[in-house]
Design a protein that fits this description.
The protein is an alpha/beta fold. It has five helices and 16 strands.
Length: about 260
């Protein structure tokens, strides 16, 4: 898929709380957004950050082609993401996109699909669910967080499909981890997952135990996004590969977990 380098203007920076922001962007020159697939990511240059020299990889959260807008969900994790969260409407970001692989789509539209996201790992699941719904599927979501205040984009997810929730403190949905949610007690044909590595590994084990196909979106550290720096190498059944070019989406059967 062809890659583009585009200057985007921030239309809105929606501060969810201190550690999360939703950036809504549109191309500065008004050009139409290129085609983007669920699971792909972008690389953002942080020209205004004095302590950040490399681009930052961010999952594609949503693409609104009617409004020509790209959504990026940002979690404060360091100087680079803190800089993004603190940017203002009208600021410009140089972005390379789209990068990486995308989620696959089951052939059978009656398949039961569960999209699992932990914390900011819900980001690629919103766009995936939206695309699946528009193509005749009935996606369900399972989202997990420490508490109710950490649940992200709940209303947006509910507009796409049924949402199951797990919180560690029991403040919303079922108490516990996503892997103990009761939705996993019923047959599921395909599980998609993104979030912290321990959570994805645990979900992968559940998927194997219940005979479900499963794809995960890895969040390895990436500096270049094109396979040049080798920062994001992951060991697979075929040897070491760059997550930024061979992934970030992998079937769990490809991984050595």
């Amino acid at each position: 898929m062809k890659k583009f380098m585009i200057d985007f203007v921030i239309v809105d920076n929606k501060h969810i709380h201190d550690n999360y922001s939703l950036l809504i962007l549109t191309p500065k020159t008004g050009e139409k957004l290129p085609e983007m697939q669920p699971g792909q990511f972008v690389q953002i240059a942080l020209d205004g950050s004095k302590s950040t020299f490399l681009r930052r990889p961010i999952s594609i959260n949503f693409v609104d082609y009617d409004k020509n807008q790209l959504w990026l969900l940002i979690r404060r994790a360091g100087n680079g993401t803190s800089h993004l969260i603190e940017m203002r409407n009208g600021d410009i970001l140089n972005i390379i996109l789209p990068l990486g692989s995308s989620f696959t789509t089951p052939a059978n539209k009656t398949s039961r699909l569960l999209l699992v996201g932990g914390g900011v790992g819900i980001a690629p699941m919103l766009y995936l669910g939206y695309v699946l719904k528009n193509n005749g599927y009935n996606p369900e979501f399972l989202i997990g967080a420490r508490s109710a205040k950490d649940i992200l984009e709940l209303n947006e997810l509910k507009s796409v499909g049924i949402v199951h929730i797990s919180t560690e403190d029991g403040s919303l949905g079922e108490k516990g981890l996503v892997t103990t949610n009761s939705v996993l007690n019923s047959p599921i044909d395909f599980i998609y997952c993104c979030g912290p590595a321990p959570m994805m590994k645990a979900v992968a084990k559940v998927a194997q135990s219940i005979g479900s196909e499963c794809e995960v979106s890895l969040e390895n550290m990436m500096a270049c996004g094109v396979g040049a720096c080798l920062c994001c190498v992951e060991n697979t059944v075929k040897g070491n590969v760059c997550v930024c070019t061979e992934g970030p989406v992998f079937n769990i059967n490809q991984l050595t977990w």
